[in-house]
Predict the 3D structure of the following.
Amino acid sequence: MFSGKFHNDRASYTLIKSTPAFWSILGDAWFHITQAPEADLPPRPAVWLFADLSGFIEGPEAAEPNNLTQIMEGVAIDPSLDHIEGTGLPLGTYGLALLSEHVVPILTNGLSTGMRVLAQGGDPGEMHTIAGTIWRTSNLLTVLLVKSPGNHNFTVALKSGLLRAVAASAHIPDFPPLQELLAHWADVVIPRHLLFHEVLRALGPALEDIADVVTADAFRQSAVYEKWSTFHSLAHEHLQILDSPFLDKTRALRACDNVECLTIQPKALFERCSGCSSFCYCCKACQVSDWRVGGHRNACQSCDAEAREFHVLTRDRAFFRALMNHDYQKSKITVLQDELVFRHTHPGEPYFLIYNYSIKGVVKIEPHLFGSNQSLSGFTWTDTVSRVARSKGRMRLDVLVFTADADGAGWLAIPFRRNTARVDIGLERLAIELRKNRDTWDMGYVTKVLAALALPEDLELETH
Ligand SMILES: [Zn+2]
Ligand SMILES: [Zn+2]
């Protein structure tokens, strides 16, 4: 329907594809088609329409990437290149479409429809052709989800039935490349977005939408089930944090950015720094002190620049804070034990905690000496470290490290402040006490003291 006619006329083809309005209209039309009652448009004709449509999106020169590894590791959408790196796909006819968010719902819906047809089964030749279309579409979508900055494409995909497509894959007949790709989605592509507010807001309804599919016996026996259930429990945990009272509290309250001040109060009561409109002070005296003595004079212009670069929004920061608090509370005794051992081997040396979130959402909380991590450097970091030193124990530092790619590239570190002088003093006392009898620790006693320190739920607030 689309391909033959336009592919022959390169100029209009390229022009049409580079027009955002075109994709918007096509996206809307496609959405209505796939949402139509099945009696009006059975999935089978819809999937052929989609095959035609996706051929048009790909363009006449589209070459199939060789394998999943190539897609995941080699592909980069860079408008300065004349092709999409790693695939040999020409950017002119194809990349422009890929850069448009309107393509996401078309591909996601098409995928989901295709899966439904495959699950029904039929003529092997026809099935193979449909599976091929779905495989190519999945590749396209993977590029859009993994390589586009921020989380918007992923959110759009969730709203357009991405999870339904993954769940439907449990019922399709054996087609290993497709299953490999879908397992990869459940394992890596989807979990890596689970730290972001926008994504989680779309994830709740998407999970409800497929509740009937994933509880069916056939799904439980499928190859994707194990990876799916890991993803599902992580998603569930994060959704609970999103609705937790702690998140509301962190959103409502704030600590004064003068680290020598202990004021915690509702955000509205603070005055913002007019230079960066990011730092907040409880009174004029605190602002003047932080400007002159605290060094904000030098830091004002660069604060938050790193967070902006990585598309971290204020509400994402609030969620990170709540997530870190949740994970800290969950393993507090273990973390305190690790800190105690760390203090024992590094007496008197200041340290901070790194919350290292792996691509699969699993966290490792570890103490680190300042200066021990080469990745943490630059002006913002130096400023943060000097603020911690100046706080004289009032400010403890937690750093969230989030790795965005399986190979460790594209990581992001955000410092958070904890206002827990009580725990700090208790730990130091215990460490000094234990240092006196170097070789034998009475573990029963140590555990008892740590449990007492761990008891109250600290309200831990973020700063810059
Ligand atoms: Zn203050
Ligand atoms: Zn400022």
Remarks:
- The CA atoms of residues 325 and 460 lie 7 Å apart.
- The two ends are 55 Å apart (CA to CA).
